[in-house]
């Protein structure tokens, strides 16, 4: 009886979680993606389906993101455009991420022009794909930074602060202003922060800037302290002047640092 009660409780809690939907026709890759994302994104419920028609069953759910696999198809393929239209119709409040076997500039541009909020290539490392999904989930937009073209800065739109900030930070009448300490960032810290905006993990930031991972982590800790931020995303938002400085009673130098 106790097990039944716990199972019922977990099911009821899952019904109130925001939902991420994976649409992939092939069972094996769909199952692999599902397994990885359920491990990495425990703040959302993740559903999987073979076709967009399965979205009809999600009308009562809070679908925040739909990841649509298009494999080798071009964005302009009629079937892809029909699928994108169906997703928009069934889940008007959800962001769409395309998973493609291609990562060429025309394909990425064509996807973004159609309102896609994220573009993931199957050639991306899994940690970058997960970071891109996190970015889209909080209101941002993501497109890949190819290893071959690391000097090319990809398009990025910062997350909507309303999706992230606690209510006490965004009270009515609050005038959002950048914290003065953010202007104290060193040139190297500004370079690292620019890479954080792209959702890159420490390993790739280190490779791109020619630094060690420990040095990158040190710079991130300094950035978070100077921005009065508790995590990387909050530091990016403060840098862009979209969050007010959080009032604290202790010295900023003693701020707790989350694991990066």
UniProtKB/TrEMBL annotation:
Keywords on record: DNA-binding, Transcription, Transcription regulation
Q: Which residues form the HTH luxR-type domain?
A: 178-243
Q: Name one Pfam family in it.
A: GerE
Q: What is one process in the GO biological process aspect for this record?
A: regulation of DNA-templated transcription
* Residue stretches of biased makeup (Basic and acidic residues): 247-260
Q: Where in this protein does the record put region Disordered?
A: 241-260
Q: Which GO terms describe its molecular function?
A: DNA binding
Q: How is this protein named in the record?
A: LuxR family transcriptional regulator
Species assigned in the record: Bradyrhizobium manausense
């Amino acid at each position: 009886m106790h097990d039944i009660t716990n199972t019922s409780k977990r099911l009821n809690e899952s019904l109130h979680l925001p939902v991420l939907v994976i649409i992939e026709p092939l069972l094996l890759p769909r199952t692999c993606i599902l397994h990885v994302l359920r491990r990495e994104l425990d703040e959302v419920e993740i559903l999987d389906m073979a076709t967009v028609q399965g979205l009809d069953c999600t009308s009562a759910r809070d679908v925040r993101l739909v990841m649509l696999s298009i494999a080798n198809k071009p964005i302009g393929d009629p079937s892809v455009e029909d699928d994108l239209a169906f997703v928009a119709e069934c889940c008007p409040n959800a962001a769409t991420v395309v998973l493609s076997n291609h990562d060429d500039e025309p394909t990425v541009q064509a996807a973004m022009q159609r309102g896609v909020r994220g573009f993931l290539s199957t050639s991306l490392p899994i940690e970058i794909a997960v970071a891109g999904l996190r970015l889209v989930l909080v209101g941002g937009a993501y497109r890949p930074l190819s290893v071959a073209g690391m000097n090319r800065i990809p398009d990025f739109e910062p997350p909507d602060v309303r999706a992230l900030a606690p209510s006490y930070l965004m009270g009515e009448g609050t005038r959002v202003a950048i914290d003065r300490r953010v202007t104290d960032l060193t040139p190297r810290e500004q370079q690292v922060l620019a890479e954080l905006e792209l959702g890159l993990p420490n390993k790739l930031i280190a490779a791109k800037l020619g630094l060690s991972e420990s040095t990158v982590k040190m710079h991130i800790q300094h950035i978070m302290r100077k921005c009065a931020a508790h995590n990387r995303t909050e530091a990016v938002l403060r840098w862009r002047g979209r969050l007010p400085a959080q009032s604290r009673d202790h010295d900023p130098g003693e701020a707790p640092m989350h694991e990066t």
